[in-house]
């Protein structure tokens, strides 16, 4: 699956750099993106990279943007970390050496942890728009003025995880079995959701599996002995397809609750599941019919990449991507500068942006945006419940 994506990415990475070659250097605003574009975790960087490029091309095609009496275009550099921390530090240092003031990504926690020391050394010189879970705990710390987090946080009164657990409780849920990967994010998720389920009065049983696991039969059988109402697996489609298939085929579980990953596994196993409740930043299949901006985005995507729209991956465009590039430009215009990152940061914290998503940042720099809860039932019927914490 990622082979064809890798070819697409290499092509548009080159195009992204060539697009600004005829623009005078003083008229260019450099932006960077640091994500896993190839490798086993490329799912989390692929759509963000495609969305960012679309935004840059749209802005440049309209002649750029004005700040004061000067017009600028964007020059995009996209660095492929391959999901490897060592490669990420090399690529990120290059961006800093090239005086790139605005960097989008990373989404992966291990990559953010790797580049954070370098980012701190450059505090005050640039802004980083990261979706990584571990970025949450770094917000507001000394030497972290550079940081914005481009993803809803799970916990808190407006946290999507809190609202998701509330929705699950309405399904008369008493017991949940959580099956997550034994890595940095998996352990963080266990801490977050242990507290959320406890507050909701729902019993939680947790098991962790090692990265690379393909056979989940033993751990599924162990969790099934507790007779949970829902299996809470995570956190990427790379494992979800296997878990859902094995759980339903073995009879261990047929009701699922997810806060990461797509509804693809539910639709592929639609006759075997009973319920599949998933956090989806936006259910594009429905939004395309009702939201003109989403429809235009999808049409532009198809035209640019000459392929069908990836509905299953599109929700990941909610992080460090299309809207965030447009929002940054709007913030630069509001601040009256493309260079003063402190003024641009202040502008971002004080504004809201109405694009594919309605976006604002809280006082720490963490994003708040509307999202969908998609409930797939046996046979493939889909119900969408919308939440908009930006109104809170």
UniProtKB/TrEMBL annotation:
Q: Which keywords does the record carry?
A: Amino-acid transport, Signal, Transport
Which InterPro entries does this chain map to? BCAA_transport, Leu-bd, Leu_Ile_Val-bd, Peripla_BP_I
Where does the record place the Leucine-binding protein domain? 29-358
- Tell me where the signal peptide lies: 1-25
CDD domains reported for this sequence: PBP1_ABC_ligand_binding-like
Keyword match rRNA-binding: no
So which domain of life are we looking at?
Bacteria
Gene Ontology BP annotations: amino acid transport
A Pfam family matched in the record? Peripla_BP_6
Similarity section: Belongs to the leucine-binding protein family.
Protein name according to UniProt: Leucine-binding protein domain-containing protein
In its UniProt entry, the species of origin is given as: Bradyrhizobium valentinum
């Amino acid at each position: 699956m990622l082979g064809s994506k890798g070819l697409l990415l290499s092509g548009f990475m080159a195009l992204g750099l060539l697009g600004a070659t005829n623009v005078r250097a003083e008229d260019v605003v450099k932006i960077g993106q640091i994500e896993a574009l190839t490798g086993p975790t490329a799912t989390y960087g692929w759509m963000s990279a495609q969305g960012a490029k679309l935004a840059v091309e749209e802005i440049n095609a309209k002649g750029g943007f004005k700040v004061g009496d000067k017009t600028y275009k964007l020059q995009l550099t996209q660095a492929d970390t391959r999901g490897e921390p060592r490669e990420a530090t090399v690529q990120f240092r290059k961006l800093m050496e090239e005086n790139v003031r605005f960097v989008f990504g990373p989404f992966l926690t291990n990559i953010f942890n790797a580049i954070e020391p370098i980012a701190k050394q450059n505090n005050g010189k640039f802004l980083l728009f990261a979706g990584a879970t571990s970025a949450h705990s770094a917000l507001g710390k000394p030497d972290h003025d550079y940081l914005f987090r481009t993803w809803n946080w799970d916990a808190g009164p407006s946290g999507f995880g809190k609202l998701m657990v509330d929705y699950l409780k309405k399904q008369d849920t008493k017991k949940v079995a959580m099956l997550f990967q034994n890595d940095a994010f998996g352990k963080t998720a266990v801490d977050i959701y242990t507290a959320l389920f406890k507050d909701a009065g729902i019993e939680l049983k947790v098991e962790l599996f090692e990265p690379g696991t393909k056979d989940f039969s033993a751990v599924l059988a162990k969790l099934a002995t507790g007779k949970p109402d829902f299996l809470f697996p995570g956190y990427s489609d790379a494992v979800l397809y296997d878990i859902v298939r094995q759980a339903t085929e073995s009879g261990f579980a047929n009701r699922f609750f997810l806060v990461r990953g797509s509804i693809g596994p539910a639709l592929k196993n639609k006759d075997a599941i009973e319920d599949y409740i998933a956090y989806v930043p936006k259910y594009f299949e429905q939004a395309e019919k009702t939201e003109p901006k989403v429809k235009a985005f999808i049409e532009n995507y198809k035209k640019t990449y000459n392929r069908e729209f990836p509905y299953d991956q599109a929700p990941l465009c909610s992080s460090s991507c299309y809207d965030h590039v447009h929002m940054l430009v709007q913030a630069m215009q509001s601040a009256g500068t493309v260079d003063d990152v402190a003024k641009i940061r202040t502008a971002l914290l004080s504004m809201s942006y109405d694009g594919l998503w309605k976006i604002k940042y809280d006082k720490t720099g963490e994003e708040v945006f509307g999202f969908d809860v998609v409930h797939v039932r046996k046979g493939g019927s889909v119900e969408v419940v919308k939440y908009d914490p930006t109104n809170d």
